[in-house]
Amino acid sequence: MQHNLANNALTNITKQVVMSKFGMDEKQWAKYAAVITTGLFKLRTAYPSQTRNYSVLENDALTALWLETFASTDIQFLPEAIDQFIKQDKKGFFPSPGQILDFAEKAKNAHFWAEAEQKERLFLMSKESKDERLSSNQE
After folding, report:
1. Closest listed residue to residue 68, CA positions, set 127, 18, 110, 132
2. Statement: the pTM of the whole predicted model exceeds 0.85
3. In Å, what is the CA distance from 40 to each residue of 16, 65, 85?
4. CA distance 86 to 82
5. In CA terms, which of 32, 38, 40, 91 is 20 to 30 Å from 65?
6. Lowest mean pLDDT: which of 24-33, 52-61, 94-103, 107-116?
7. Which class for 95: exposed (0-12), middle (13-18), buried (19 or more C-beta within 10 A)?
């Protein structure tokens, strides 16, 4: 029998709780759930010894926990956080949600500073261009 996330009672309860608590519609939930389940799949692949013997209930509980834990997180940074955790992990253990949240916060901060630097470069280029125009008009 194939295990299907959409037909899982625990996940459906989690879905209703998360959608209600965070004001998600079906489309937002679908995108959110896809990011979380894809991330968990990647982690289960990278750390097979920790989750290979999980029962269906344990896998469902893990998925429900992650769905609820990350609902207030900007999921844009979650795939990068999971990738960075896997690349930097030296212990070989499946991460806790808190570890991934830390990596997601770092990714978000790095993105913020990269955007700020880009805006500053554009501002300086614009200022230089304006200064060049002013100096050529004065000549």
Report:
1. 18
2. no
3. 20, 11, 12
4. 6
5. 91
6. 107-116
7. buried
